[in-house]
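Quick one: structure for this chain?
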Amino acid sequence: MEETSKDTSKGFTGNQLKVFAIIAMTIDHLTCVIWPGYNYDWWIILLHLIGRLTAPTMWFMCAQGYAHTRNVKKYIARLFVFAFISHFAYNFAFGIPFIPFRTTVFNQTSVIWALAWGIVLLCILDADFLKSWQKTAFVFVITAIAFPADWSSIAVLAIMEIYIHRENLTKQILHMEKWVLLYALVWFFCIDKVYAFIQLGVIIVWPFMKNYNGQRGRMRFMKWFFYIYYPAHLVVCGFIRLYLHGNVAAIIGG
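Got it. Here's what it folds into:
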């Protein structure tokens, strides 16, 4: 990446990026359950815009994790276990039935489901024994499987683009934003026009990625902390939703 030539003693470590993402995610999710629906108050929109930092940071760190993991099979297995646990926490948080597709095809499970399949796709793309057309076919299959997750197929495609263009930050951002634009168009025509533009706010990740120094950081506990924090904070959000509004769905998506 472009930033690899920088002084690794400066900038943000991977663990620091995860902290920023966790803070942004918590702000976004609390906003969803405290003020459910599509509110147009400027400060609520601002809080959701802050939350747009989370998903692209996850995509970026997944691509980094795949590139540097010592055991990709364990990495994938960990993500799928995490996706299973987080499914129930995510659906409880936002009032979605645990059994998928009882209400809609969108936002039926957490983004972790898509992240796990994103890593599977990277393994396929790196497989020398597969032909180009076979890899292309897998892209379609895996994006379809990831479709019901939060951020839908876009999460898989973004991870793919970030990994493919890992030597060029500008290309990473532009190709990621290309798919997010498609996601925003679906929102614009099918869900909510204002919140469609909010999805484009993922561009705020650019300065964070630009200042990534390529180091994991000293906080070795961060990997497991995120695995614990993600479902735990969703359970808390679920109880807040029930306390404030009863069993009313609060998801805005993305």
